[in-house]
Design a protein that fits this description.
Blueprint (H helix, E strand, L loop, with lengths): L6 H16 L34 E11 L4 E11 L6 E7 L25 H5 L13 E7 L7 E4 L2 E10 L4 E11 L6 H6 L9 E5 L4 E6 L5 E2 L2 E2 L3 E2 L15 E10 L3 E4 L2 E2 L2 H4 L2 H10 L6 E4 L1 H8 L7 E11 L4 E4 L3 E8 L5 E8 L4 H22 L7 E6 L4 E3 L2 E4 L11 H16 L5
Parallel strand pairs: 1-13, 20-21, 21-23
Antiparallel strand pairs: 1-2, 2-7, 3-6, 3-10, 4-7, 5-6, 8-9, 9-18, 11-12, 13-17, 14-18, 15-17, 16-19, 19-20, 22-23
């Protein structure tokens, strides 16, 4: 017997093993759909929309109130779900991302509880993943149809399934409402303590400033919202782990936010009532910014410093926003905010307001660079891809980076003496560009 007969087989086997060992698809049970997708009438093999491509639409009318004393958000939303799919739907899936922090609905199944050779005190405390989490998570008060009838629902960790009273056929709409509340987490400290891992830093919540006793609120993933339903996977209802991203359905938002009248709000969408919520001086500066190519301080450094020294106002006011054709809605609020804005003429000739909100701790960097970095991003991305599709673009200094439609949160604070390094400046500018750029490529 000559061994040379088996040489070709041996070479092919070795090559196959080498290719498999280098592949990112290492499981023998993986479906071929992700590796060799087949085309259909909904989308081509390259992922481009086909002749029968469809997307669902979800419209939200939301009224909410931020209780600064209790650090709690209460909200009521009316949701209209447009079934543009060819399917008949018998239930809806919604995301309850704040249940990431819930004792009852915790989904931190991926966090290992093990003691390493070297561990910090906070990491050791983090082995108790339930610490200080008793009151957190979304509290659903009611789910009703448009006639006021209760709808049956089931909460599964960070997901909620709502049973429809009758099937919603293709081309039909279904309107229902949800009332909810939740306590905000300390997004800077609590998540690090609870998990021992800074990579699970909460995206939404509050930051407390002990020097002046004030808060900065980042309101993200804050309302019960529909999961995506697509031709590719049906309901995309994977649990939210805090580290992952999320697919959402486009729609229109009509949002009313109640806060103390000494708080400044920045938000997805366009404010509908600046004359009602701004002082006469601030409104004049806002009007000035409409034609300025340099940042104009709507709420000045002096305004913010004076504001943060006072007790929280007991007088409330409502900020009203509208946003069209967006996949999500986020906002921010604080007594500490300086707010500046400039106007940018988009590549399609439309005006975009480039704005920044930041505490005094970030003033040295943000006043000089933030809104200009926003404008630079729009200018470059719009010239090389598509015109920026929204009327505003906002950068918020909130110690960490994350993007949402028309608004993003970024780092960029100076030292206590007001100085900053070249690295800090470049970091702030690069993160702003990165996060604003996600409006083009989520």
């Amino acid at each position: 017997m000559h061994n040379s007969k088996f040489l070709p087989f041996l070479v092919c086997s070795l090559l196959s093993f080498t290719v498999q060992s280098q592949s990112n698809h290492g499981t023998k049970f993986e479906q071929l759909g992700t590796i060799l997708p087949a085309s259909n009438t909904y989308r081509g093999i390259d992922g481009a929309p086909g002749p029968d491509y469809w997307q669902q639409q979800v419209d939200y009318q939301i009224k909410c109130e931020l209780d600064v004393k209790k650090i709690q958000l209460r909200g009521h939303e009316k949701i209209t779900y447009h079934n543009n799919s060819p399917s008949t739907l018998r239930y809806l899936w919604l995301q309850l991302d704040e249940n990431q922090h819930s004792v009852l609905n915790d989904n931190q199944y991926f966090t290992e509880s093990k003691i390493s050779d070297k561990m910090s005190e906070s990491a050791i405390r983090g082995l108790d993943s339930w610490r200080e989490k008793e009151k957190y998570g979304v509290h659903i008060e009611l789910v009703k149809d448009q006639n006021g009838n209760d709808l049956k629902y089931t909460i599964n960790q960070t997901m909620m399934r709502v049973e429809l009273p009758s099937p919603v056929k293709s081309g039909e709409n279904f309107t229902f409402s949800i009332t909810w509340n939740y306590y905000l987490v300390d997004r800077i400290d609590m998540q690090h303590i609870a998990t021992g891992d800074a990579s699970t830093l909460a995206r939404g919540g509050y930051e407390y400033f002990p020097d002046d006793g004030n808060y900065l609120f980042t309101m993200t993933q804050w309302y019960p919202r529909l999961c995506a339903y697509t031709d590719a996977v049906g309901w995309q209802n994977n649990q939210f782990t805090g580290r992952g991203e999320f697919a959402l359905t486009f729609g229109n938002f009509d949002v009313e936010i109640t806060v103390p009248d000494d708080h400044v709000i920045g938000s997805t969408g366009e404010c509908q009532n600046y004359p009602d919520v701004l002082s006469e001086e601030a409104l004049n500066r806002w009007n000035e910014a409409q034609t300025s190519d340099e940042p104009v301080e709507i709420v000045t450094l002096e305004n913010a410093q004076d504001n943060e020294q006072k007790k929280v106002s007991k007088v409330k006011q409502v900020w009203k926003y509208k946003a069209e054709n967006v996949r999500d809605f986020a906002w921010t609020a604080s007594k500490k905010f300086i707010w500046d804005a400039l106007a940018y003429e988009n590549t399609d000739g439309k005006k975009v307001m480039c704005m920044s909100y930041y505490p005094k701790e970030a003033y040295p960097i943000y006043r000089r660079y933030s809104s200009k970095a926003v404008r630079h991003t729009l200018d470059v991305y719009s010239r090389y891809s598509i015109p920026y599709p929204y009327p505003v673009a906002i950068s918020v200094e909130a110690a960490s980076g994350m993007e949402y439609p028309m608004i993003c949160f970024n780092p960029g604070r100076a030292e206590e003496d007001g100085t900053y390094s070249e690295a800090s400046k470049n970091s702030a500018i690069s993160v702003i560009i990165h996060e604003v750029g996600h409006n083009y490529y989520p």
